[in-house]
């Protein structure tokens, strides 16, 4: 019992504590805008689907950006608002979509929107594909985190079960063999 308490205390001292953030809670005040955009990839995918729906419904990309910015997470919302305002003023699409390209989650979307502005093609299918890719990346990252957690749990389990196995499995066998060897004069 004493060894278990010592190992537990050692584990608590060695393993650094990380703050836990509940799902759906707001990011901390110390996080950067890029971290805040990366915190919920499904929200960004939903925003891209909403943007595609607005464009399919007949809205211009500028009007769709203004409409979607009202419900988008903050880093993406300010980028969409700024891009929509710049496009409404007649700015170059490359310069207008530059803030959206700064976020890792929406960099491919900015590229698609720039190309669409230059060529005049419909962007709705490209936005839907980008949303599907965003969801796929989020699923892959979640599976990778779950796999890593499965590997990391083996350390504490080994620290708990290995001493118990030695004490309850190996020590009695060795004591039993040593007792019979000493009792019979070396012949088991």
UniProtKB/TrEMBL annotation:
Domain of life: Bacteria
Assigned keywords, A-Z: Cell membrane, Membrane, Transmembrane, Transmembrane helix
Pfam families documented for this protein: T2SSF
InterPro entries: T2SS_GspF_dom
Type II secretion system protein GspF domain span: 48-167
Segments passing through the bilayer: 161-182
Subcellular location: Cell membrane
Membrane topology annotation: Multi-pass membrane protein
Protein name, per record: Type II secretion system F family protein
Organism: Rhodococcoides corynebacterioides
Taxonomic path: Bacteria, Bacillati, Actinomycetota, Actinomycetes, Mycobacteriales
């Amino acid at each position: 019992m004493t060894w278990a308490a010592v190992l537990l205390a050692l584990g608590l001292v060695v393993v650094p504590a990380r703050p836990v953030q509940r799902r759906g809670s707001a990011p901390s005040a110390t996080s950067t805008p890029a971290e805040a955009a990366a915190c919920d990839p499904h929200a960004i995918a939903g925003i891209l689907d909403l943007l595609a729906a607005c464009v399919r419904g007949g809205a211009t990309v500028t009007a769709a950006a203004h409409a979607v910015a009202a419900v988008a997470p903050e880093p993406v919302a300010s980028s969409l608002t700024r891009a929509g305002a710049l496009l409404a003023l007649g700015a170059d699409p490359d310069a207008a979509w530059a803030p959206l390209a700064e976020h890792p989650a929406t960099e491919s979307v900015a590229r698609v929107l720039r190309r669409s502005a230059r060529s005049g093609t419909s962007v709705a299918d490209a936005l839907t594909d980008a949303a599907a890719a965003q969801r796929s990346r989020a699923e892959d990252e979640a599976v990778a985190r779950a796999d890593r957690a499965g590997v990391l749990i083996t350390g504490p389990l080994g620290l708990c079960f290995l001493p118990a196995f030695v004490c309850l499995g190996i020590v009695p066998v060795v004591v039993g063999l040593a007792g019979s060897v000493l009792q019979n004069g070396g012949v088991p």
